[in-house]
UniProtKB/TrEMBL annotation:
Keywords: Signal. GO terms for cellular component: cell outer membrane. This is TonB-dependent receptor plug domain-containing protein. It comes from the Bacteria. Gene3D superfamilies: TonB-dependent receptor, plug domain. Pfam families: Plug. GO terms for biological process: siderophore transmembrane transport. Residues 5-118 form the TonB-dependent receptor plug domain. One of its GO terms (molecular function) is siderophore uptake transmembrane transporter activity.
Length: 289
């Protein structure tokens, strides 16, 4: 390598390449085959899908920047793999024109958080009238421990645009209805197969170190309904100067309920503890088997 040559490379994928090679359900799917990148997408519509690079992992969400039409969608309120993940769902999959990735930490045109790299997602501004709509349905059977269910996700996305002289416009919308599989399980006890007193249903299990990890239920089972819409206007002032305006909105309504495997030995009803006085399946928000 030459002494003054920056070790930075860029990688790109266009809308045409996405259509031909990628099963694009969510915006983050557009980058899953790009080198040196990994998106932790645990389910369709995951709002904690962290972008990891070759130099920073999943626990460092603030060390990589994600832009959509030059607007930052990274959530720099923290540096973790939960509530500080990029707001991918602001983007309608049908509106993506190209994706470019700049390897960090030498993206000098961007703030210091670009130390891990910069991901640039650009809308496909039209040269002629176009309209597209797509409906996607995903079905995932699940059978583990005491949870046996089928989780279905449906997504409707659409985009339309046109150019009239120097003015071009693009409008896009996306609606996703997602049911999430268990991402964690609740464990109990120090004796294999023995659960809380006064209950049945504990499943004997061990962790990877051989310790007792009896399973008594799941963590949160999320149902997410997400709606997003975007408007982008561009006006060519000169062949080299363009003025743009972008507006986007995203709404996420999510409910998360655990599932218990325990049943009271007194009433036979699902319970979350050792007493029949604890919540049962008839209590709002409680999910029984």
């Amino acid at each position: 390598m030459a002494r003054y040559q920056l070790p930075q490379r860029s990688f790109s994928v266009t809308a045409k390449e996405v259509d031909e090679t990628i099963n694009l359900k969510d915006p983050e799917d557009a980058v899953k085959y790009m080198p040196n990148l990994f998106v932790r997408k645990r389910n369709d519509g995951d709002n904690q899908a962290v972008l990891a690079t070759r130099s920073w992992g999943l626990n460092s969400s603030a060390r990589t920047l994600v832009y959509y039409d030059d607007l930052l969608i990274s959530a720099l309120i923290g540096n973790n793999n939960t509530n500080s993940s990029p707001r991918w769902n602001l983007i309608s999959p049908e509106a993506i024109g190209r994706v470019d990735y700049l390897n960090g930490p030498f993206a000098a045109a961007y703030p210091g958080n670009s130390i891990g790299g910069v991901l640039l997602i650009t809308s496909k501004m039209p040269d002629k009238p176009f309209a597209v709509a797509k409906e996607t349905v995903s079905v995932m059977p699940w059978n583990q421990y005491g949870t046996k269910d089928t989780y279905v996700t449906s997504q409707t996305s659409a985009a339309a645009g046109n150019r009239d002289g120097a003015l071009s416009w693009l409008v896009s919308a996306n609606y996703l209805d997602s049911f999430q599989q268990p991402l964690s399980y609740t464990t109990f006890g120090t004796t294999l197969g023995v659960g809380p007193a006064g209950t049945t249903g504990t499943i004997a299990a061990q962790n990877k170190a051989g310790g007792v990890a009896n399973v008594v239920g799941t963590g949160a089972l999320a149902h997410s309904q997400q709606t997003s819409g975007n408007l982008r206007l561009a006006y060519d002032i000169t062949p080299l100067v363009q003025a743009t305006y972008s507006f986007g909105i995203w709404n996420n309504h999510q409910t998360s309920d655990p599932q218990t495997y325990l049943r009271s030995t007194v009433t036979g009803l699902p319970t979350f503890g050792a007493s029949a006085a604890l919540p049962t399946a008839n209590t709002p928000g409680i999910r029984s088997m």
